[in-house]
Amino acid sequence: MRGDPLADIRAAAAVQFVVKNGRVITVDEILAPARTPRQLEARRQALAAQDAFCRRDPAHCAEGGGHAH
């Protein structure tokens, strides 16, 4: 990662690779299991359900409303 996440937490989102047991693993390799058709469909369904819920109860989904996004 570029930067020091202890000084600026946003640096933690800039991971470029991970080294595990001496093997370099890229971000694409890390995210590959989440990019399968099955996982993408599950995410689409979850987002659609969240969207429908927020349309029914907008106050619950408003910023600071206690709903984790």
Please provide a written account of the structure.
This is Amidohydrolase. InterPro entries: Metal-dep_hydrolase_composite. By secondary structure, the chain is of the alpha+beta class. It folds into 2 domains: 1-35, no CATH class; 36-69. The chain contains 3 helices and 2 strands. It has helices spanning 27-31, 37-56, 58-61, and strands at residues 17-20, 23-26. A two-stranded antiparallel sheet has the order 1-2. The two termini are 24 Å apart. The model has no long low-confidence stretch (mean pLDDT 86).
Structure characteristics:
single chain; about 70 residues; alpha+beta; 2 domains; two-stranded antiparallel sheet; 2 strands; flat
Quote the average pLDDT: 86
Q: Separation of termini? A: 24 Å
Oligomer state of the chains in this structure: single chain
Arrangement of strands in the largest sheet: 1-2
The percent range for strand residues is 5-15%
Number of extended strands: 2
What pattern of helices and strands is seen along the backbone?
EEHHH
- How many DSSP helices? 3
Q: Tell me the radius of gyration.
A: 17 Å
- What general outline do the C-alpha atoms trace? flat
Derived structural class: alpha+beta
Protein name: Amidohydrolase
InterPro entries: Metal-dep_hydrolase_composite
Quick description:
The protein has 69 residues and is α+β, with helices and mostly antiparallel strands.
